[in-house]
Amino acid sequence: MSTVEDLLAADRSLLLVDDDKAFLTRLERAMQKRGFDVRIADTVAGAVAAVNQEAPAYAVVDLRLEDGNGLDVINALHLKRGDARAVVLTGYGNIATAVTAVKLGAVDYLSKPADADDVINALLSTGQAPEPPENPMSADRVRWEHIQRVYELCDRNVSETARRLNMHRRTLQRILAKRAPK
Predict the structure, then answer these.
(1) Residues 6+ away with beta carbon under 8 Å from 168
(2) How open is the CA angle 102-58-110, to the nearest 5 degrees?
(3) DSSP for residue 68
(4) Which of 13, 15, 84, 125 has its CA 20 to 30 A from that of 40?
(5) What is the pLDDT at residue 45?
(6) What tens digit of pLDDT does each residue of 61-84 get?
(7) 87 neighbors 173 (Cβ within 8 angstroms)
(8) Three-state secondary-structure class, residue 138
(9) Rounded Cα–Cα distance for residues 28 and 127 (Å)
């Protein structure tokens, strides 16, 4: 199977999971136009229920949802269907969660805003490495990524992360609440 049509001919089922209803509706329509059989969910519980009912071949999952973490959906999907191709889509991207997502079985990790073409390319990629970025990360971004990595390694425990980083807990909470620097 080498072309998009070959991949889609086998199984066109796609689960979209995002708590931004407007974005979810737009992406649903765009993916239906591209030949996918789309189901949607806006919570972790709804997505896990959809996976347990009938595990899709493809999934696009937001990382931060109202009732939990999208990585739980990725994990449930790959426990139910090991060959499923999942992409994590988030506005709060960091290296630690990207690594965790890939370990759980995600094939790619995209930052919002991503359009339907970016999502399709990620879902159907053949494993070729993308071109390196033209602009490397800033020092502030590298610091933020390191904090996020330690936070994930501490199972998202703020007190333990602050202790390991030799940082005040409240300072760490303020950093974690902000978006990533550019």
Answers:
(1) 162
(2) 45
(3) E
(4) 125
(5) 92
(6) 988 888 888 889 999 998 998 888
(7) no
(8) coil
(9) 25
> pLDDT for 19-28, tens place per residue?
888 888 888 9
Please give the structure tokens belonging to residue 40.
């949607």
Chain segment 113-164, per-residue pLDDT in tens: 677 888 888 888 766 655 555 666 778 877 888 898 888 889 989 999 999 9
Rounded to 10 degrees, what is the CA torsion of 116, 17, 91, 120?
Answer: -20
Looking up tokens 């890939």 gives: 102
Give me the long-range contacts of 173-181 (CB less than 8 A, separation at least 24): 175/144, 175/147, 176/147, 176/148, 176/151, 179/91, 179/92, 180/92, 180/93, 180/94, 180/141, 180/144, 180/145, 181/138, 181/140, 181/141, 181/144
Q: CA torsion 88→35→131→139, rounded to 10°?
A: -30
Task: Check whether the bond before 56 is cis (ω within 30° of 0).
Answer: no
Tokens of 55: 């595990």
Residue with tokens 């490397």: 136
Instruction: Give CA–CA dist 34/25, Å, rounded.
Output: 14
Dist. CA 30–CA 20, nearest whole Å: 15
